[in-house]
Amino acid sequence: MTTDEKLQHFYDVSVESAKAEAAQEIENYKKALMKLLEEHKQDKIRQSQMELKAETDNAKRQINKALSVEQLNIKRRLAKKQLELRDSIISEVKNRLEEFMSTPDYPRYLCKKINEALEFADGDEMTIYISSNDASLMPTLVAQTNQQVEISSETFFGGLKAVIPSKNIIIDNTFSALVEAEKAEFTFDGGLSYE
Fold it and tell me: How far apart are CA 115 and CA 170, in angstroms?
């Protein structure tokens, strides 16, 4: 083998070796880049998922907040409507009581309440008071119950009061007291439940 051939052979082997090393380096670099690309993709996917979760959670909070505000508004409107209905019903009850007070049943009702109070007093001294609006009924009440009846200095809406001093008891059978008690205890039951 001549020197030129040896040089050529050395050159060819060197070039082949350099090409093989370069190809290996390029392959390693490609693998490293692919690994970096895959890691970058995974990071971006994780980041996107976290952002999506954060936005979803935020949207849920906003929806829940809006729902809470709307529920509160609905409850307020419902309470207002219930008060309006209660007042309307109480007004209707008062109107019907006024109508009842102009019927022959009203003096009978008063006599019944006087007799119940007499039974409760069980012989103790008792004073019966009626409203000044019912003064015209006094002779009828006295005649039918054999009990003295007085006109109250307080103005009240129908019915009567009985005072038993020995027992420190006031029996309040006035329509005013009955209506106020019903108004205080009035509730709307039934229907849909939101609680």
Answer: 15
Nearest to 129 by CA among 174, 181, 180, 176: 174
pLDDT digits (tens, 9 = 90+) for 50-71: 999 999 999 999 999 999 999 9
- Per-residue pLDDT at 155: 86
CATH class for the domain made up of 104-185: alpha beta
Q: Return the axis-axis angle of helices 175-185 and 3-101, rounded to nearest 10°.
A: 170
Distance CA 12, CA 59 (A): 68
CA dihedral sign, ordered 140, 145, 146, 148? negative
Q: pLDDT digit string (tens) for 91-147?
A: 999 999 999 999 999 999 999 999 999 999 988 999 999 999 999 999 999 999 999
Domain ranges of the chain: 1-102, 104-185
Q: Is the pTM of this model over 0.70?
A: no
Which amino acid belongs to residue 112?
A: K
Per-residue b or e along 86-125, where b marks 16 or more CB atoms closer than 10 Å to that residue's CB: eeeeeeeeeeebeeebeeeebbebbbebbeebbeebeeee
